[in-house]
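Budget justification note: compute hours in this period were largely spent on complex prediction jobs such as the one shown. Inputs:
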Amino acid sequence: MALWMEILISALLVLAGIFAIVGSFGLIRLPDPMTRLHAPTKATTLGIGGVLIASMLYFWGAEGRVSAHELLITLFLFLSAPITALFIAKVHLHQAEKPGALPAPGEAGDWASFAPDGPARGVRPAGEGDEADAPPRG
Amino acid sequence: MITPMISAALTFAFACFALGLVLNLWRVLTGPAASDRILALDTMVINAIALLILLGIWQGSAIYFEVSMLFALVGFVSTVAYCRFLLRGDVIE
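Corresponding output:
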């Protein structure tokens, strides 16, 4: 195996380990549940991405075969991480005991998950965007 | 074969992910709300996948990719099922 590839694999492994430890430490250290949601879903995904790229490079350099399993795992994790983050955030919003426990959203009104017929449920206000959906004439 | 540089980096990554698992376990045990515990369990699944792939590099074996793919699937489905149970009171309606 070439030296530059060894250095690249080692650097990716060390970087992935640092990202993983930062994500798990943030899960312990951050004060609020919403900030705690931030740390592992991003840092650990980067950490596992580094490990998977290092694995691809290692098997390519050591045995000369290119495997697509890592790409499958990366694709699945990158697709599923936002969905799990959304579900955990919804659980946190809906399980809050008292109203003052939740921070204010960044815009006017309540959180979109609590709106009875807001855009989060797929309902559009009447008269908005009707013209845009019509096919162009002429 | 594994060269000394890759061996040292692998050992460092093993230690980091194992320490991350211990920190996540602390959050699972002391998490004030259910959402914190779900988040910590989901992160534990991700760290376990990384440990499996590191073990695959260490042993030069490709069988751990299937194991980690199954681990990712089961972890995702269990996280979503637990969240849905807490949100709706039922998993499949």
